Amino acid sequence: MLSHVRKFACPRAFGAFGLGGRKTPSEHLNPNLETAMPRRPLPRCPRPNCSRKTTTYTKHSLLKSRRRTQRRYRCTACNKTFAANVGTPYHRMRHPAKLFDQVIALATEGNTRAGVARALGLSPGTVARWIEKASAHAQAFNELKVQKVEPVELQSDELKVLLSQKSRPLWAYTAIEVWSRLWTTTLVGKRTLRNTVLHFRDMNERCRKSGPRVLISTDAFKYNAGVIARTFGPSCVHVQVIKRFRKSRVVHADKRLVLGAPWQFDDAMERSEDSKTINTAYVERLNLTIRRSLASLQRKTNATCRSIESLAGQLELLRCSYNFIRPHSSLKFGRVNRTPAQQAGLVSERLTWRKIFTARLLDRPDLSFRSRMRARAVGQAHLSGAG
């Protein structure tokens, strides 16, 4: 049997088949997370002032249209009626849900909104509204599911983005957990101390506090060292990769240990199954995937976003697709190809857009996408005015 397993030639493959290494995703699934997604949305009263948390409902009527027949329910607590798909992006949509899923799938594969509209025979305004609705739901889904990650090695970087050809450049902060290839957090804004603190604080909140020291690799941005030392403290080992460029090419890379003792760094490198030396290659490969998967971030494109909210929403939509839907090529063990969320133990199966969009998020009003982005934009405008 060992001779049959050796053909994988990867330490992660041995751990996946229970032959040593870290636990398989099915063994360390977080019991506090709902790993099994519902096949169909369960009826639930959408009104926050309803007296009953566990809604008791009865069938009310059938709403017939030219395209389909939809069931409506009546809440026995507040005596109000509601549809079965209320609280999902499919609510009050006149087109089939399958067409909605196709639009979102094409938008996260590098196609422009105009191209998607021409291919599917829709209006560009309809495609834009659908992407906005899907982005809000994907952001809430990411906030709910990407929690209590067990990190081994984290890498963080910044991706330069433009809202228009004449605007000043912004930066998309990204972070990846190397062992599971999980895209843990993202943030769009200026390259300031405030945004750096928000980025690493969000990364720290999504990781488990217990366990051995985490290896964090970053570039030589001036705020990274102080923010990581204040946010993670002695629970991490921080290393930096200082790159020297000549004619837009990397000619030399210096590696420096910033936080932690040398023996702590050696222990962290021994636990890492992927990195043999200090690097930021995995987060840079994630940045390439982001740039190629969004039409607004591609080189010399005319499909740039007009606002920071729109760009942040598209990144959250792509993050949801990257973690939960798209299988990762480096997480293939035999005939089994996992997603990063499966490898991290957040879900037990590969999800689809239908399962994600039918997830119930009505009881979480604090996860509103527009309110969070509006507050973030107001804070950035205040900082820019003060400067």
Name the features.
disordered C terminus; alpha+beta; 387 residues; disordered N terminus; 11 strands; single chain; 13 helices; Nucleotidyltransferase, domain 5; 2 domains
Describe this structure in words.
- Helices cover 36% and strands 19% of the residues.
- The protein starts with a helix and ends with a helix.
- The protein folds into two domains: 42-84, no CATH class; 144-386, Nucleotidyltransferase, domain 5 (2-Layer Sandwich).
- A hairpin with a 4-residue loop joins strand 1 (57-64) and strand 2.
- The chain has helices at 2-5, 11-16, 97-107, 113-120, 124-145, 193-205, 224-231, 262-271, 281-293, 308-325, 340-344, 353-357, 369-386; strands at 57-64, 69-75, 81-83, 153-161, 170-177, 182-189, 214-218, 236-245, 250-259, 332-333, 336-337.
- The protein has 13 helices and eleven strands.
- A six-stranded mixed β-sheet has the order 6-5-4-7-8-9, sandwiched between helices. Strands 1-2-3 form a three-stranded antiparallel β-sheet, with no helix packed on it. A two-stranded antiparallel ribbon has the order 10-11.
- With 387 residues, the chain is of the alpha+beta class.
**Which shape, going by the Cα principal axes?**
globular
Strand order of the largest sheet: 6-5-4-7-8-9
Helix content bin: 25-40%
Structural class: alpha+beta
CATH 4th-level superfamily of the largest domain: Ribonuclease H-like superfamily/Ribonuclease H
User: What's the CATH architecture of the largest domain?
Assistant: 2-Layer Sandwich
* Uncertain residue ranges: 1-23, 25-29, 362-374, 381-387
In this structure, how is the largest beta sheet organized?
6 strands, mixed
N→C terminal distance: 65 Å
Helix count from the secondary structure assignment: 13
CATH class descriptor of the largest domain:
Alpha Beta
- Using the coordinates shown, work out and report the CATH topology of the largest domain: Nucleotidyltransferase, domain 5
What is the mean predicted local confidence, pLDDT?
79
